[in-house]
Give the backbone structure.
Amino acid sequence: VAIWRDRAVVKHILIGLAIAVAAQAQTKIVIAHRGASGYVPEHTLEAYAMAHAMGADYIEPDVVLTKDKVFICLHDIHLEMTTDVEQVFPDRKRDDGKWYAADFMLAEIKQLHAHERLKNRFPQDKSSFQGPTFAEMIEIVQGLNKTTGREAGIYPELKEPQWHRENGLPMEEAFIELVKGYGNTSETSKIFVQCFEAEPLKRMRNELGSTLPQIQLLGSGKEFAPMLTKEGLAEIAKYANGIGPDKGSVDKDPYLVKRAHDAGLKVHPYTLRKDSLPSKYSSFDNELNQFYNVYGVDGLFTDFPDLTVAFVNGKK
Ligand code: G3P
Ligand code: CA
Protein backbone atom coordinates (compact mmCIF):
# COMPACT_ATOMS: atom_id res chain seq x y z
CA VAL A 1 0.00 0.00 0.00
CA ALA A 2 2.86 2.29 0.97
CA ILE A 3 4.51 1.70 -2.42
CA TRP A 4 1.31 2.60 -4.28
CA ARG A 5 0.74 5.59 -2.03
CA ASP A 6 4.33 6.72 -2.77
CA ARG A 7 3.79 6.20 -6.48
CA ALA A 8 0.66 8.34 -6.31
CA VAL A 9 2.64 11.05 -4.56
CA VAL A 10 5.42 10.83 -7.16
CA LYS A 11 2.84 10.98 -9.97
CA HIS A 12 1.26 14.01 -8.34
CA ILE A 13 4.64 15.73 -8.10
CA LEU A 14 5.49 14.90 -11.74
CA ILE A 15 2.18 16.26 -12.98
CA GLY A 16 2.79 19.41 -10.96
CA LEU A 17 6.25 19.74 -12.47
CA ALA A 18 4.92 19.20 -15.99
CA ILE A 19 2.32 21.91 -15.47
CA ALA A 20 4.98 24.26 -14.12
CA VAL A 21 7.27 23.58 -17.09
CA ALA A 22 4.37 24.07 -19.53
CA ALA A 23 3.39 27.31 -17.82
CA GLN A 24 6.96 28.53 -18.03
CA ALA A 25 7.14 27.56 -21.70
CA GLN A 26 3.99 29.55 -22.41
CA THR A 27 5.61 32.68 -21.06
CA LYS A 28 8.23 32.53 -23.82
CA ILE A 29 6.76 34.56 -26.62
CA VAL A 30 7.46 34.69 -30.35
CA ILE A 31 7.29 38.10 -32.02
CA ALA A 32 7.02 38.05 -35.82
CA HIS A 33 9.41 40.83 -36.84
CA ARG A 34 7.79 42.93 -39.59
CA GLY A 35 5.47 39.93 -40.14
CA ALA A 36 6.91 36.68 -41.49
CA SER A 37 9.56 38.85 -43.13
CA GLY A 38 11.95 35.99 -43.84
CA TYR A 39 9.45 34.67 -46.38
CA VAL A 40 7.50 37.56 -47.94
CA PRO A 41 8.20 41.32 -48.12
CA GLU A 42 8.14 43.01 -44.69
CA HIS A 43 5.16 45.06 -43.55
CA THR A 44 2.68 43.68 -46.07
CA LEU A 45 -0.67 42.11 -45.24
CA GLU A 46 0.70 38.88 -46.71
CA ALA A 47 3.61 38.93 -44.23
CA TYR A 48 1.26 39.58 -41.31
CA ALA A 49 -1.19 36.86 -42.37
CA MET A 50 1.62 34.34 -42.78
CA ALA A 51 2.98 35.20 -39.34
CA HIS A 52 -0.46 34.63 -37.86
CA ALA A 53 -0.79 31.28 -39.64
CA MET A 54 2.64 30.28 -38.34
CA GLY A 55 1.48 30.74 -34.76
CA ALA A 56 3.33 33.90 -33.74
CA ASP A 57 2.18 35.24 -30.37
CA TYR A 58 2.65 38.83 -31.48
CA ILE A 59 3.06 40.45 -34.89
CA GLU A 60 5.18 43.57 -35.29
CA PRO A 61 4.33 46.60 -37.41
CA ASP A 62 6.69 49.59 -37.43
CA VAL A 63 4.54 52.72 -37.85
CA VAL A 64 5.10 56.19 -39.31
CA LEU A 65 2.71 59.01 -40.26
CA THR A 66 1.71 60.31 -43.67
CA LYS A 67 1.25 64.03 -44.45
CA ASP A 68 -2.50 63.63 -43.82
CA LYS A 69 -1.77 62.05 -40.42
CA VAL A 70 -2.55 58.44 -41.20
CA PHE A 71 -0.45 55.74 -39.53
CA ILE A 72 1.08 53.39 -42.08
CA CYS A 73 3.26 50.32 -41.64
CA LEU A 74 6.81 51.12 -42.71
CA HIS A 75 10.21 50.45 -41.18
CA ASP A 76 11.97 53.61 -42.32
CA ILE A 77 10.56 57.14 -42.17
CA HIS A 78 11.37 57.28 -45.90
CA LEU A 79 9.98 55.12 -48.65
CA GLU A 80 12.65 54.21 -51.18
CA MET A 81 14.11 51.12 -49.47
CA THR A 82 10.97 49.03 -49.84
CA THR A 83 8.77 50.74 -52.48
CA ASP A 84 8.98 52.03 -56.05
CA VAL A 85 8.54 55.67 -54.94
CA GLU A 86 11.58 56.77 -56.99
CA GLN A 87 9.87 55.65 -60.20
CA VAL A 88 6.35 56.87 -59.34
CA PHE A 89 7.26 60.25 -57.79
CA PRO A 90 10.77 61.05 -59.13
CA ASP A 91 10.59 64.74 -58.14
CA ARG A 92 9.40 64.38 -54.56
CA LYS A 93 12.68 63.66 -52.75
CA ARG A 94 14.12 66.05 -50.18
CA ASP A 95 17.56 67.62 -50.53
CA ASP A 96 19.09 64.63 -48.75
CA GLY A 97 17.90 62.39 -51.60
CA LYS A 98 15.19 60.60 -49.60
CA TRP A 99 11.43 60.32 -50.14
CA TYR A 100 9.78 60.84 -46.72
CA ALA A 101 6.38 59.28 -45.97
CA ALA A 102 5.52 62.48 -44.08
CA ASP A 103 5.62 64.39 -47.41
CA PHE A 104 2.99 62.16 -49.05
CA MET A 105 -0.78 61.84 -48.68
CA LEU A 106 -2.07 58.33 -48.01
CA ALA A 107 -3.74 58.26 -51.47
CA GLU A 108 -0.31 58.83 -53.03
CA ILE A 109 1.38 56.16 -50.93
CA LYS A 110 -1.35 53.73 -51.95
CA GLN A 111 -0.15 54.15 -55.57
CA LEU A 112 3.18 52.56 -54.64
CA HIS A 113 4.22 48.93 -54.87
CA ALA A 114 6.06 47.42 -51.92
CA HIS A 115 8.98 45.07 -52.50
CA GLU A 116 11.45 42.95 -50.56
CA ARG A 117 14.31 44.84 -48.90
CA LEU A 118 16.96 42.09 -49.12
CA LYS A 119 18.26 40.56 -52.34
CA ASN A 120 18.58 37.05 -50.89
CA ARG A 121 14.91 36.79 -49.92
CA PHE A 122 11.63 37.08 -51.90
CA PRO A 123 12.40 38.11 -55.52
CA GLN A 124 12.35 41.90 -55.51
CA ASP A 125 10.69 42.27 -58.95
CA LYS A 126 8.05 39.55 -58.63
CA SER A 127 4.38 39.52 -57.71
CA SER A 128 2.54 42.57 -56.36
CA PHE A 129 2.50 43.95 -52.82
CA GLN A 130 1.26 47.12 -51.17
CA GLY A 131 2.03 48.74 -47.85
CA PRO A 132 -0.98 48.73 -45.47
CA THR A 133 -2.18 51.34 -43.04
CA PHE A 134 -1.76 50.47 -39.36
CA ALA A 135 -5.55 50.17 -39.10
CA GLU A 136 -5.54 47.61 -41.93
CA MET A 137 -2.79 45.71 -40.10
CA ILE A 138 -4.81 45.56 -36.89
CA GLU A 139 -7.89 44.53 -38.83
CA ILE A 140 -6.19 41.60 -40.54
CA VAL A 141 -4.83 40.35 -37.20
CA GLN A 142 -8.20 40.76 -35.47
CA GLY A 143 -9.97 39.16 -38.45
CA LEU A 144 -7.66 36.15 -38.32
CA ASN A 145 -8.05 35.98 -34.56
CA LYS A 146 -11.77 35.58 -35.18
CA THR A 147 -11.63 33.12 -38.08
CA THR A 148 -8.91 30.89 -36.60
CA GLY A 149 -9.93 31.14 -32.97
CA ARG A 150 -6.30 31.81 -32.04
CA GLU A 151 -5.56 35.22 -30.60
CA ALA A 152 -2.34 36.85 -31.75
CA GLY A 153 -1.37 40.22 -30.36
CA ILE A 154 0.23 43.24 -32.00
CA TYR A 155 3.61 44.75 -31.14
CA PRO A 156 3.74 48.19 -32.83
CA GLU A 157 6.89 50.34 -32.86
CA LEU A 158 6.57 54.11 -33.12
CA LYS A 159 9.35 55.16 -35.49
CA GLU A 160 11.14 58.41 -34.66
CA PRO A 161 8.39 60.27 -32.77
CA GLN A 162 10.70 63.23 -32.08
CA TRP A 163 11.38 63.66 -35.83
CA HIS A 164 7.65 63.43 -36.52
CA ARG A 165 6.92 66.07 -33.85
CA GLU A 166 9.49 68.40 -35.41
CA ASN A 167 7.78 67.87 -38.76
CA GLY A 168 4.37 68.82 -37.37
CA LEU A 169 3.15 65.27 -36.88
CA PRO A 170 3.02 64.36 -33.15
CA MET A 171 2.32 60.66 -32.87
CA GLU A 172 1.54 59.67 -29.29
CA GLU A 173 -2.04 60.86 -28.72
CA ALA A 174 -3.26 59.79 -32.17
CA PHE A 175 -1.60 56.41 -31.70
CA ILE A 176 -3.26 55.80 -28.33
CA GLU A 177 -6.66 56.82 -29.76
CA LEU A 178 -6.25 54.51 -32.75
CA VAL A 179 -5.36 51.39 -30.79
CA LYS A 180 -8.05 52.20 -28.23
CA GLY A 181 -10.59 52.17 -31.06
CA TYR A 182 -9.60 48.55 -31.65
CA GLY A 183 -10.09 47.54 -28.02
CA ASN A 184 -6.58 48.07 -26.67
CA THR A 185 -7.43 49.92 -23.49
CA SER A 186 -5.63 48.35 -20.52
CA GLU A 187 -2.57 46.59 -19.18
CA THR A 188 -4.13 43.23 -20.09
CA SER A 189 -4.61 44.11 -23.76
CA LYS A 190 -2.62 41.86 -26.11
CA ILE A 191 -0.32 44.60 -27.28
CA PHE A 192 3.20 45.83 -26.58
CA VAL A 193 3.99 49.42 -27.57
CA GLN A 194 7.69 49.83 -28.37
CA CYS A 195 9.98 52.75 -29.08
CA PHE A 196 13.72 53.54 -29.07
CA GLU A 197 12.97 57.00 -27.67
CA ALA A 198 12.14 57.20 -23.95
CA GLU A 199 10.24 60.49 -24.00
CA PRO A 200 7.28 59.27 -26.09
CA LEU A 201 6.90 56.22 -23.83
CA LYS A 202 6.97 58.46 -20.75
CA ARG A 203 4.47 60.84 -22.35
CA MET A 204 2.04 58.03 -23.16
CA ARG A 205 2.30 56.55 -19.66
CA ASN A 206 2.46 59.72 -17.54
CA GLU A 207 0.68 62.44 -19.53
CA LEU A 208 -1.81 60.45 -21.60
CA GLY A 209 -2.45 57.92 -18.83
CA SER A 210 -1.93 54.87 -21.04
CA THR A 211 -1.62 51.60 -19.14
CA LEU A 212 -0.84 49.57 -22.27
CA PRO A 213 2.27 47.39 -21.90
CA GLN A 214 5.33 49.33 -23.10
CA ILE A 215 8.79 48.22 -24.20
CA GLN A 216 11.86 50.43 -24.17
CA LEU A 217 13.98 49.48 -27.17
CA LEU A 218 17.75 49.65 -26.62
CA GLY A 219 20.26 49.96 -29.42
CA SER A 220 23.88 48.90 -29.48
CA GLY A 221 25.25 52.46 -29.50
CA LYS A 222 27.09 54.15 -26.63
CA GLU A 223 24.12 56.42 -25.93
CA PHE A 224 22.16 53.43 -24.65
CA ALA A 225 24.86 52.19 -22.24
CA PRO A 226 23.52 54.08 -19.18
CA MET A 227 20.12 52.47 -19.70
CA LEU A 228 21.64 48.98 -19.43
CA THR A 229 22.87 49.53 -15.86
CA LYS A 230 20.93 48.57 -12.72
CA GLU A 231 20.07 52.24 -12.17
CA GLY A 232 19.10 52.77 -15.80
CA LEU A 233 16.81 49.75 -15.76
CA ALA A 234 15.18 50.96 -12.53
CA GLU A 235 14.38 54.22 -14.34
CA ILE A 236 12.91 52.34 -17.32
CA ALA A 237 10.72 50.32 -14.96
CA LYS A 238 8.94 53.55 -14.00
CA TYR A 239 7.33 53.85 -17.45
CA ALA A 240 7.82 50.53 -19.25
CA ASN A 241 7.11 46.84 -18.72
CA GLY A 242 10.13 45.51 -20.53
CA ILE A 243 13.16 46.14 -22.68
CA GLY A 244 13.90 45.21 -26.27
CA PRO A 245 17.69 45.12 -26.48
CA ASP A 246 19.80 44.52 -29.53
CA LYS A 247 20.66 40.79 -29.32
CA GLY A 248 24.38 41.58 -29.45
CA SER A 249 24.05 43.45 -26.15
CA VAL A 250 22.75 40.27 -24.50
CA ASP A 251 25.43 38.12 -26.10
CA LYS A 252 28.07 40.49 -24.73
CA ASP A 253 26.45 40.90 -21.31
CA PRO A 254 24.08 38.01 -20.48
CA TYR A 255 23.59 39.35 -16.94
CA LEU A 256 21.54 42.13 -18.52
CA VAL A 257 18.64 39.66 -18.49
CA LYS A 258 18.90 39.13 -14.73
CA ARG A 259 19.32 42.85 -14.03
CA ALA A 260 16.20 43.58 -16.09
CA HIS A 261 14.23 40.79 -14.41
CA ASP A 262 15.31 42.07 -11.00
CA ALA A 263 13.91 45.47 -12.01
CA GLY A 264 10.62 43.77 -12.94
CA LEU A 265 11.18 44.13 -16.68
CA LYS A 266 10.58 41.55 -19.41
CA VAL A 267 13.35 41.04 -21.97
CA HIS A 268 12.56 40.72 -25.71
CA PRO A 269 15.78 40.96 -27.79
CA TYR A 270 15.81 41.61 -31.57
CA THR A 271 16.27 40.11 -34.20
CA LEU A 272 16.93 36.42 -34.92
CA ARG A 273 17.42 35.56 -38.60
CA LYS A 274 18.09 32.10 -39.94
CA ASP A 275 19.69 33.57 -43.07
CA SER A 276 22.00 35.91 -41.14
CA LEU A 277 23.33 33.71 -38.37
CA PRO A 278 26.13 35.12 -36.17
CA SER A 279 29.29 33.03 -36.61
CA LYS A 280 29.28 31.94 -32.95
CA TYR A 281 26.11 29.89 -33.54
CA SER A 282 26.17 26.57 -35.38
CA SER A 283 22.48 26.67 -36.29
CA PHE A 284 19.32 28.73 -35.89
CA ASP A 285 18.12 26.35 -33.17
CA ASN A 286 21.45 26.78 -31.40
CA GLU A 287 20.91 30.56 -31.31
CA LEU A 288 17.27 30.15 -30.21
CA ASN A 289 18.35 27.79 -27.44
CA GLN A 290 21.03 30.20 -26.23
CA PHE A 291 18.58 33.11 -25.94
CA TYR A 292 15.47 31.34 -24.69
CA ASN A 293 17.01 28.69 -22.45
CA VAL A 294 20.51 29.83 -21.48
CA TYR A 295 20.09 33.61 -21.30
CA GLY A 296 16.47 33.14 -20.19
CA VAL A 297 14.82 35.87 -22.24
CA ASP A 298 11.02 36.18 -22.23
CA GLY A 299 10.55 36.59 -25.96
CA LEU A 300 12.36 37.09 -29.24
CA PHE A 301 11.84 39.10 -32.39
CA THR A 302 12.28 36.75 -35.33
CA ASP A 303 12.06 36.94 -39.13
CA PHE A 304 11.25 33.21 -39.11
CA PRO A 305 8.22 32.75 -36.83
CA ASP A 306 7.53 29.15 -37.92
CA LEU A 307 10.96 27.91 -36.83
CA THR A 308 10.80 29.92 -33.62
CA VAL A 309 7.30 28.70 -32.70
CA ALA A 310 8.40 25.11 -33.38
CA PHE A 311 11.40 25.58 -31.09
CA VAL A 312 9.35 27.10 -28.28
CA ASN A 313 6.78 24.33 -28.59
CA GLY A 314 9.55 21.73 -28.33
CA LYS A 315 8.85 20.21 -31.72
CA LYS A 316 12.49 20.36 -32.80
O1 G3P B 1 11.55 46.75 -32.78
C1 G3P B 1 12.51 45.77 -32.56
C2 G3P B 1 13.37 45.79 -33.75
O2 G3P B 1 12.51 45.66 -34.84
C3 G3P B 1 14.12 47.06 -33.81
O3 G3P B 1 14.80 47.15 -34.95
O4 G3P B 1 15.19 48.38 -36.97
O5 G3P B 1 14.04 46.20 -37.09
O6 G3P B 1 12.87 48.18 -36.22
P1 G3P B 1 14.17 47.49 -36.36
CA1 CA C 1 10.85 47.38 -35.17
Q: What stands out?
A: Residues 33, 62, 75, 157, 194, 217, 244, 270-271, 301 surround SN-glycerol-3-phosphate (ligand 1) (CB under 6 Å).
